[in-house]
Structure formats: C-alpha cells, structure tokens
Design goal:
Distance between the termini of chain A: 68 Å
Strand content of chain A: 15-25%
Number of strands of chain A: 15
Number of helices of chain A: 12
CATH architecture of the largest domain in chain B: Orthogonal Bundle
Largest sheet of chain A: 7 strands, mixed
Number of domains of chain B: 2
Largest interface: B-C, 65 and 68 residues
Strand order of the largest sheet of chain B: 1-2
Radius of gyration of chain B: 25 Å
Order of helices and strands of chain B: HHEEHHHHHHHHHHHHHHH
Helix content of chain A: 40-55%
Largest sheet of chain B: 2 strands, antiparallel
Shape of chain B: globular
Oligomer: heterotrimer
Distance between the termini of chain B: 36 Å
CATH topology of the largest domain in chain B: ABC transporter involved in vitamin B12 uptake, BtuC
Shape of chain A: elongated
Structural class of chain B: mainly alpha
CATH topology of the largest domain in chain A: Rossmann fold
CATH superfamily of the largest domain in chain A: Response regulator
Number of strands of chain B: 2
CATH class of the largest domain in chain A: Alpha Beta
Chains: A alpha/beta (372), B mainly alpha (415), C mainly alpha (300)
CATH class of the largest domain in chain B: Mainly Alpha
CATH architecture of the largest domain in chain A: 3-Layer(aba) Sandwich
C-alpha cells in the first residue's frame, strides 16, 4: 500500500512537470475562458467554438500581419476562485488578450489580474453593470449590453405596452437574476406609474414553487417580472399555469434560450423575454452559424453571436493596430468600427458596446418572435 | 492462475454491468425531436472492461490470499521496520528538511500558475488541519465547517470595504471571529451526538451561506464584494508575479504556524481530553473531564484556522461571493481529513495536496476529471479506510519489555 | 383562511416530495447507520431511466396509463440495480472500517454517479413529459392542488404505510429490525445479514425511483444535479423526524415542507431555507433524537 501512495505522489509530481508545456514563440496568444464542462457548459462552450471558428479564419488568411494566433482554452466552471487560477495561468502563459469570462462573478474576480498584467479582456456574456461603469478597468470590453439596459427595457415594456399597474418581481437569488430584479424595482419605483407589490427570491433547484405562486395570486399582481435563468423560469411558469394564474410573465435573456421552449412546452406560450437583436439575416451571423453547423452538426447555443462579435472585434483591432500591445489595442477597439453579426459596432470609453441593444420577444407557436 | 470459477464470476460481472448500464449508456434520446439513438458499441465496451476488471481484481485478491500465510511473518517484519524508520527522529528530521527546502524553492523553478495552485492547496492544508481538530481529534463530525471559512473571508472583505483595514490587521480578527462563531455553533449542539450533530452543523453551514446570500444590505448579496486588497509588504507595490510568490510564502508561513500549534495542542492536556472524548464520551466524563469546556474548545480552536484561511482566501482571490462556500466545499475538506488519516497531521497535509492538486492536474483528461475524482475517493477508502497515513498514538514502553513487533502491530485508528 | 389552506397544500406537496426520498435515507440509516449521500443519485438515475423509457414508449404511442406504469417499473428496476451495485462496491467492503470511511465513500460515489450520467447522457436540462393524467374531479380545486400533487401525496402516504407494515409484521421486516439492532446477534440467530442489507438498499432505491418519476413529472424537467439538491433536503427531513424511523421520515418531511411554504407565504421566500434549517436546529436542541426518534442509551 505504501508503494501505491508513493507512486501516487510521484505521479502527481511527474504531472507537474508535464504541465509546463513549451509554446511556440512566434504566435499571438489569446485566452478563451468560461464554463466548458458541467452544468453551465451550455453558456460557455458556444463562445469557445465561436472564437475557434473566427481564429481559424484569421489564421488561414495569414494571421495578424503574418503572425498566427494561438488559442488557449481554459475552463473556469463559472467559479471565481477557479477563475483567478485560470487567469494567472493565462497571464503566465503570456496571453495578449482574453475572450471571456462568461459569468459575471469570475469576470469581476479576474479583472484586477488582467489589468495588472496589461491584458485586454472582451467578455461575450458578462452583463453586471458595475464591471465597467466606474472606469476602473480600462482593459475591459464586452459585446453584450449590460443588465441595467435590459431592466430598463423590461420595465418600459411592462409599464407602457402591457399597462401593468401592480407588478410582482421574482428572482433566483443569483448575481445576475437578483441584480436585474433590483434594477427593475428601482426603475418601476422611479416611474411612479406602477407599484411593486411583491419582491421575492426563489430558491434555485427547489422542487416546488407553489407557495410563492399563491403569494403572487394574493398580491393581485397583473404582471410578473422574473430575473434569472430558464430552469427556474420554466418551473415557475408551468406551476403558475397549473394554478390557473394567467397574468403575463416577462423575463430576461437568461430565459430566451431554446431549452426554455422545449422544457416549458405549451406553458411557454405568451411568455415575454428580452434578448439581443435577431441576427438571422445578418450575413456574418449566417456565415458563422453555417460553419458551426457544418463542424458540429448542431445549432449554436447561447452567446454564440456575441462571442463571434468579440473575436472579430479583437482580431480586427489587432490587425488595424498592427500590434497586440494592450494600449494600441484599447485605442483601436474604441475608435475603429468593426463588422460583426450585430452590424457595425464600436466601444465607448467604458468598454460598453455601441450598436448592440436589447429587444423584446414573445413565445408564439413554440418560437421567440420579435414584438418590440 | 485463472480457474474456470474465476472466468465464470468475471463473465457474470460483465453481464451484470451490461444490464445495469443499459438504459443510460446505450440509449440516448432526444426529448425535443423525439428521436432515439442506440449506442450498442458502448455496451460491448462496458462488458469487456468490467469482465477484465473483475478478473484482475479476483486474481490480485486470490494471489494475496495464497501468498499471505508464507509472507505474513516477513511482511510484518518489514512493515514494522518501515514504521520505525518513519518514527526515527533522524529520518523525520531529514524528511522535514527536504520537504521544506522543496517547498521554499518551489517558486524559483515553476511558473506562477503552479505556485498559485500550490498556494490554494496549502490553504486547504490549513483548513484540513483546523477541521482535523474537530473531527479527527475530538471526534465531532462537522459538515458545516465551510461556514467559518466564509466568516473569515467576509470579515476581511467587509472590514476592508467599510473601514479600509489591511490584511495584517484583519488576520487575527478573522481568526477570533471564526472562534466566536465556533462557540456559537458549539453551544446549541452540546447535547447532540453522532449524526444528529452532523446534520446540525450542516444546517449551520447552510444558514450562514443563505444569510450572506439574502441579506444584501449587509453582505452585498450574491454579487459579492470585489477589489479586496492583497496583503501589503511594507507599502511596496508588487508586480502580479511577485504578489503570487509573496502570497505563497505567506501561506507557507501560515501552514508552518498551524502545524506547530496543532502539533503542540495534540499532545497537550486539552488534546488528550479531545481524544478521550472521541473514544468514549461517558468514560471521558467519568475521568473528570469537563465535557462542555472541551467540546466548545474543539469547535472554537478548529474554527479559528478556518477564519484565518478565509481571510487569506479573500486576499488571494480579491473577490468573495456566497457561491464559494457551499456544502460541497465542506465535504471536500472532510474528505481531506478522512482520506489523509483522521488525527494525523502529516496525513491531512498529504490528503489536502492530493485532493486539491489532483483535479487541477486531471484537467488533462478534461471530461473524466470529476468522474475520476469520485472513483478515487471510493477506491482509496476501500483500500485504506483508516486514511493514507494513520495517526500514531504516543506510546510509552518500559525499556525492559521493549519489543518492536508487539508495540506497533495494530494501527491506532482500528480501535 | 383560504390563503392559509392554499399554503397548507403547497407545504404538503413539498413535504410529500421530500418524504419519497427521505424514506430511503431513513431505512438505510436505520439498518447500517450510514448517511447514504449517494441516495439522491438513485432518485436522479430513476428519473433519467424513466425519461428514456417514457420517451420511447411515447414515440410508439402507448396509452398514457401504460406509459406511466412501465416507466415507473423500469425506473424501479434499474435504480434498485444501481442501489444494489453501489452497496456491493462502495459500502460492503467498509463494513468494519472506521465510522467515517463509508461516509467519504458515499460522497465519492455521489460525485462519480453524477458525472457518469453527465458523461453518458447530458449536463443540460431535459424536458420530462407529464405522465399523470389530469383528474377531472380535481378540476374545481385546480388553484389549490394539481393532479400530480395529489398523486405524490397519495403515493408517499401509501409507501409509508406499506413500509411500516412490512417492517412490523413480515418475516423480512423482523430480520431488518434484528439487523438494525445488532448485526452479530442477528447473524447468530440465522439472519442473512448481507442479504438483508442488500434488500434494504434495493427497497430504498426503488422507492427513490418512484419518487424520481413522480417528481420529474411534477417539475417537468430534470438534469444530473437534481439528486444532490433534493438529497440534502430529504436528509434534513429524515433527521428532523428521527432518523431510522419510518413514520418519522414522513412527519419530518411534512414539517419541513410546511415550514418552507408558510415562511414563503407569511415572511419571504428569501428566507424559507433559513427558517427550515433554523427549525431543525431548534427541534434537535429540545429533542436531540428528532421528533419520533428513540434516544439511544450508551453503556460503558
């Protein structure tokens, strides 16, 4: 048994040595991070694939002024403490820029590391507003609109189009969902046109939400706003309809997901959700979606277009700046327009995308249809 | 030697696993398009692999059984000699010096990423040693240990946010608050024993996390607290790489302190009392030990280390949110203690290094990483239920009756 | 008042869901004193097997009652098989090991099974068809209790009754009690202890599988992590009621479910779990062996 233990330890040490791979010197390294395994992989993998497709194109056209790009993919599992390890690993490997992180928590935790190492970060999916707005992180950009913009659209739609007067706000107690819900509450209270009659967090993963639904019923709300992801949304909508509660359900881009349609089935009908622009007619989007289908034999998932936009913006900025140097890159990203699946976009001085917004969709006959 | 009986048994095992894994491994349905995908080749693989695995296990076990009688005597001798080798002060000192030199020179040879994950592993050494006081020495099963870790982390995060206190100031405060929460948990559970104690500690851990998650005014809720300062070094600003190395050496220092204190505690009056409590609560009371006092001291002293490790965690990641303090974290720390060897300091250290570094290096096998992790836990427990390095009791032998074969033939933990 | 009744039924639904899983926990604990962390995975495997079988049957357009019966049957068969195998591999070799070794083995098994299903199936959420038909006689009360809720409530009560009767009066039940009391003595009076323990695991896992199918049709979706979350709650419920006691597990589940729903109704669902766990701590302070558990007497 002793030998087993020792060989175990020996093996781990050998692995340590193996873990320091030698990279070719004459490449530009770009990190791609996000959840690539586990339950959140469906949010992270599409970004990885999108970046790979874009980089493959760039490299086949000669790379960045003759220098090929090398991608380093790292899984952060959407956990901040793992993400900081991943970030130091990427920085140690000498990456010039990072596409990621996908979740807001890891992005928040790793931005100081990247800033200190002078690495540009473009997140295709992190939507927490305070990442960029205080201007601390000059190296941060994103190709998705922030949550406050989304909450603003949700409340405007609920108040003006649906003419709701009493609104129940639910969230999933998570960073993203609760943040969104709190913005929505603030906007509704500011507008004075309607009242928030209920503000509650539901426990994610719970088997039954009927108690909170009875509470909505009792509050006489005439619309429900939900901040969170699709698994909870489909459970809440399903049980609302079971309890014969038919008021409108307005949700976010964490719900505007094909899985929601399939899981909620007929209960999904009529649900509203905010989401990024419908890009199905954009030639760049079509091109990359076709490439994805050809390579994977499946439909691209969440944040695919955002990641294509991030990778395009980054590589084009590198080509235009003629260098992967952070300062030149930041300047190029802020000044040059770049063609992406969302049309021509650029970034303002807080790293927010100009040209990517949110729209309201409704589920009609099992599909999300643009309504506003 | 493979007998027909062995083959039959292995064949049956293969068939059983083919049946067992049939629906999940062979059939894959697409509930959206309502199509079924049959993967028969997987079934063949399962059958072949489990057949061979079963055969190998039987052969190994069979050989061990036949060889046992002849070898027993010599085996005993060598194992005793090995045990003695470990116990000899000269060997112990040599091992200690080698490993210290290795640890201290580590950042010189490896990249900052390697240093960083080793720092994480060392943090778990401190956590493991702290939990070892409660579970290993005092025998109180604690499934909510991560709560104290969270207390430490949030102590630093909040004190830094509101009062701009530095790391060095908060480190002792974190330890103290950890101890305070340890007492807070200790009082209500004084009467509970065994698994009822376990579930209350689990509930306590959940309550602490849920409060951090829901009481946004106090803790900023699920969005967490960012931009926590790293420890300072006399006001110098360090480059990212230097910071990582600096954190690493700080962590080595903390581990050294923990090992020193825990070691002293173990052989102290109170450490003996904990062990008496673990062996038998009633007998322990009958010996005149104040049960209340030593139970509370175990919880408080165990929690102190988690509090300090928490402060360190906040300083290292510069960001805390409640998602880092879930039940699974408590379970992993418990695994470190049990896998390493309950009550053994060296065991806990080895356990932490293996369990924390293993998933990092298993990244090479990506998809199978956690599968392998789970399987390794099970296999290790079956092969070595008392842990990798079983604790040894301090024994006093009279010189005249000294007989090496008798004094160490039963590992202490088997009792 | 009406609101209270609505909350009451919400609580009962939740409680019955916990009860279906808690019964298995309590039986295994009662027999070998092991917190079987992998029990939640049996429930998850039952739900997955159920989904696979149900989908195939629905593709071939079987009538709904037949689909339900066959699905439940398949789920029970395979979950029991997994329960049996897990006991043989991960717990039986550790029967004489130190107390915490089987616990760690169970945690390892739980991680292993989750990742195994994730690898061979998927980590995504999958829709689960609703297998319980809408009962017409419940339609007037649809705002209070749904058909699936009613089915879960009834099944959990029947399961509790049958188990209690079995443990009390049948031969195998007596053998189970003997094993629980003293394995060595049971062996001496001719009880096949190994077989009884295997039987307990098979029974517990089978029950969890029925729970898996029913709860999945109630929730409408499954993924590989449902076992873990439900497992912790069910375990809490089992301890609350007095672990090892069959009626205790059900009572504990109802108390837990009602606490959660009343907290949500009258305080806030933000704190439902905090109240549930605080109640557990409170009850255990005053009744250290749970609501219906027997205090164990130690002799030196």
């Amino acid at each position: 048994m002793r030998t087993t233990v020792f060989s175990f330890i020996l093996a781990s040490f050998i692995l340590i040595f193996l873990q320091s791979p030698t990279y070719a010197e004459n490449t530009i390294k770009i990190g791609v991070t996000g959840a690539h395994q586990g339950d959140l992989a469906s949010y992270g993998l599409p970004s990885l694939k999108a970046t790979q497709l874009v980089v493959k194109d760039i490299n086949s056209q000669g790379g960045i002024n003759g220098v090929p790009i090398e991608l380093l993919a790292e899984d952060d599992g959407c956990k901040p403490e793992v993400a900081t390890n991943v970030a130091t690993k990427l920085v140690a490997a000498g990456v010039k820029a990072v596409i990621g992180h996908v979740c807001s928590g890891p992005t928040k935790a790793t931005l100081p590391i990247y800033r200190d190492a002078n690495v540009v970060v473009i997140s295709p999916a992190a939507t927490t507003p305070n990442l960029s707005q205080d201007g601390t992180y000059q190296n941060f950009f994103r190709t998705i609109a922030a949550d406050d913009a989304q909450a603003r659209l949700q409340t405007d739609f609920t108040l003006q189009t649906l003419k709701a007067k009493k609104i129940a706000i639910l969230h999933d107690k998570g960073d993203y969902g609760k943040g969104l819900a709190e913005y929505a509450r603030t906007f509704i209270e500011q507008s004075k046109d309607a009242k928030v009659v209920l503000f509650e967090g539901v426990t994610p993963g719970a088997v039954d939400y009927s108690a909170v639904i009875q509470k909505i019923k009792r509050s006489n709300a005439d619309a429900v706003l939900f901040g969170g992801y699709h698994p909870e949304a489909s459970k809440i909508v399903g049980q609302m309809r079971q309890k014969r509660l038919t008021i409108p359900f307005v949700s976010d881009d964490g719900v505007k997901d094909a899985t929601f349609l399939k899981v909620a089935g007929k209960d999904a009908e009529g649900v509203y959700a905010t989401g990024p622009a419908d890009v199905s007619n954009n030639p760049i989007a079509i091109m990359y979606r076709d490439k994805f289908r050809a390579a994977e034999g499946a439909e691209p998932g969440s944040f695919f277009d955002n990641a294509v936009a991030a990778a395009l913006a980054l590589t084009q900025a590198m080509i235009k700046a003629g260098t992967a140097d952070a300062d030149a890159l930041i300047k190029a990203l802020r000044t040059q327009k770049v063609a992406t699946p969302f049309g021509d976009i650029t970034f303002d001085d807080r790293g927010e995308p100009v040209g990517i917004g949110f729209f309201i969709y409704q589920v009609q006959n099992g599909r999300f249809v643009l309504v506003q | 030697m493979i007998t027909r009986h062995d083959l039959r048994h292995a064949g049956l095992t293969g068939l059983w696993f083919m049946f067992l894994t049939f629906p999940l491994v062979v059939i894959k349905i697409n509930p959206i398009e309502h199509t079924v995908h049959w993967r028969w080749s997987n079934m063949v693989w399962i059958g072949v692999v489990s057949f061979l695995a079963s055969l190998t296990i039987r052969l190994v076990q069979g050989r061990r059984r036949t060889g046992e009688n002849e070898k027993q005597q010599s085996l005993l001798q060598t194992s005793v000699r090995q045990f003695d080798l470990l116990r000899r002060p000269a060997f112990f000192r040599a091992a200690l010096i080698t490993s210290s030199v290795l640890l201290i020179s580590f950042p010189l040879f490896f990249s900052s990423y390697q240093v960083n994950i080793l720092t994480t592993a060392l943090m778990y050494v401190v956590l493991g040693l702290g939990l070892n006081i409660v579970v290993g020495m005092a025998g109180l099963l604690d499934l909510g240990y991560v709560a104290f870790y969270a207390v430490g982390a949030y102590t630093y995060a909040l004190l830094h946010l509101h009062f701009n206190l530095g790391f060095w100031m908060v480190l002792p405060i974190g330890g103290l608050l950890g101890a305070l929460f340890g007492l807070l948990l200790g009082f209500p559970v004084l009467r509970l024993r065994g698994d009822y104690l376990a579930i209350v500690t689990l509930a306590f851990g959940q309550i602490v996390r849920l409060i951090l998650e829901n009481w946004s005014e106090f803790s900023k809720g699920p969005s967490g607290i960012a931009n926590i300062a790293r420890p300072g070094l006399f006001g110098l600003t360090l480059s990212p790489e230097a910071t990582i190395t600096y954190l690493y050496y700080l962590m080595i220092g903390l581990v050294g302190l923990t090992v020193f204190v825990v070691n002293r505690l173990q052989n102290s009056r109170i450490g003996r009392a904990w062990q008496a409590l673990r062996e038998d609560e009633i007998a322990c009371q009958a010996m005149g030990i104040d049960k209340t006092k030593i139970k509370l001291s175990a919880f408080a002293l165990g929690a102190t280390w988690a509090g300090m490790a928490g402060v360190f965690f906040a300083a290292k990641t510069t960001f805390v949110n409640p998602a880092s303090f879930t039940f699974i974290e408590s379970a992993i720390i418990l695994c470190i203690v049990v896998l390493g060897g309950m009550g053994s300091i060296a065991g806990v250290m080895v356990g932490a290094l293996i369990l924390i570094l293993l998933p990092e290096y298993l990244r090479a096998v990506a998809d199978y990483r956690m599968l392998a992790f789970g399987a390794i836990l099970v296999v290790m427990m079956i092969v070595r239920p008392q842990g990798l390095i079983a604790p040894k009791r301090r024994t006093y032998t009279l010189p005249s009756t000294h007989n090496p074969v008798n004094s160490s033939d039963v590992p202490a933990s088997d009792r | 008042m009406e609101y209270f009744i609505e909350l009451l039924f919400s609580g009962l639904t939740r409680g019955s869901i916990y009860a279906l899983i808690a019964l298995g926990y309590t039986m295994v604990y009662g027999i070998i004193g092991l917190i079987n962390f992998a029990h939640g995975e049996m429930y998850m495997i039952g739900a997955f097997t159920g989904l696979i079988v149900a989908e195939i049957l629905l593709i071939y357009q079987f009538p709904l009652p037949a689909v339900f019966v066959l699905t439940a049957l398949a789920a029970v068969i395979w979950s029991s098989a997994y329960g049996f195998t897990v006991e043989r591999i991960a717990y039986r070799p550790l029967r004489k090991a130190p107390r915490l070794a089987p616990l760690i083995s169970a945690i390892g098994m739980s991680i292993f099974l989750q990742n195994y299903v994730q690898l061979v199936q998927t980590a995504d959420f999958l829709p689960f068809p609703s297998l319980i038909p809408e009962f017409a006689f419940l339609e007037p009360y649809a705002g209070i209790i749904g058909s699936t809720d009613a089915a879960i409530l009834v099944v959990s009560l029947i399961a509790m009754l049958l188990l209690s009767v079995m443990v009390k009066w049948t031969r195998i039940g007596k053998a189970m009690r003997a094993t629980a009391q003293d394995q060595k003595m049971a062996l001496l009076v001719g009880v096949n202890v190994d077989r009884i323990i295997s039987f307990t695991f098979i029974l517990g896992s089978g029950l969890a599988a029925i729970g898996g199918v029913l709860i999945a049709s109630h929730v409408g979706q499954i993924n590989v992590f449902i076992g873990f979350i439900a497992g912790i709650k069910a375990f809490t419920a089992a301890v609350l009621g007095g672990i090892g006691s069959i009626p205790g597990a059900v009572l504990g589940s109802y108390v837990l479910g009602l606490t959660e729903s009343l907290t949500t109704g009258y305080v806030s669902s933000d704190y439902e779990d905090v109240f549930a766990f605080a109640l557990l701590v409170l009850i255990l302070i005053f009744r250290p062996s749970g609501l219906l558990g027997k205090a164990s007497v130690d002799k030196v």
